[in-house]
Amino acid sequence: MIERRQALNGSLPHRVVRSRPLPAPETKVMTEFDAGSGERAVSTTMAFAVLLRGLLRDKNLGQRIVPIIPDEARTFGLDALFKEVKIYAPLGQLYEPVDSKLMLSYTEAKDGQILEEASPRRAPWRTSPRRAPPTPHGDNP
């Protein structure tokens, strides 16, 4: 046992970290905010949506960002991301959404980057591993 500890450089294991720091986002992502909003009133949610869109478009960072949004994304102004970044769905888009003709339609894809979480009050089985989805004959116990 003593030989094994010496081979492992002591009794406590140590982790070798080989990661590299992430690059800073491109300056154009932040310069949009330098001038402020001027006369236009902007909510923090709207400013966040603009910042998130800029970060997602960044060629160095964009693929590393995975927004987790509520199913009320339209309320928060995040629906602009649907067409551009798409919502992750392991089987892709299996239906035609009611807003498919709109410019900012709900778009799911196998390569989507957004994770969408359902509100527990609307679909408790999507957020709780203990509950199964309801059957056509009623709720599962």
Helix content, binned percent = 10-25%
| Arithmetic mean pLDDT | 79
Widest sheet: strand ordering = 1-4
Tell me, briefly, the overall form. Answer: flat
Largest sheet: 2 strands, parallel
In what range is the share of β-strand residues? 5-15%
Strand/helix succession = HHHEHEEEH
Distance between the ends: 52 Å
Radius of gyration: 22 Å
Helical segment count: 5
Given as residue ranges, the uncertain stretches (5+ residues, pLDDT < 50) are 124-133, 137-141
SSE blueprint:
Elements lengths: L1 H6 L19 H5 L12 H14 L10 E3 L10 H5 L1 E2 L19 E2 L5 E3 L6 H4 L14
Parallel strand pairs: 1-4, 2-3
How would you describe this protein?
There is one protein chain. The protein has helices spanning 2-7, 27-31, 44-57, 81-85, 124-127, and strands spanning 68-70, 87-88, 108-109, 115-117. With 141 residues, the protein is an alpha/beta fold. The strands form 2 sheets. Strands 1-4 form a two-stranded parallel sheet. The longest helix is centred in the middle third of the chain and has 14 residues, at 44-57. The N and C termini lie far apart (52 Å). Residues 124-133 and 137-141 have low confidence and may be disordered.
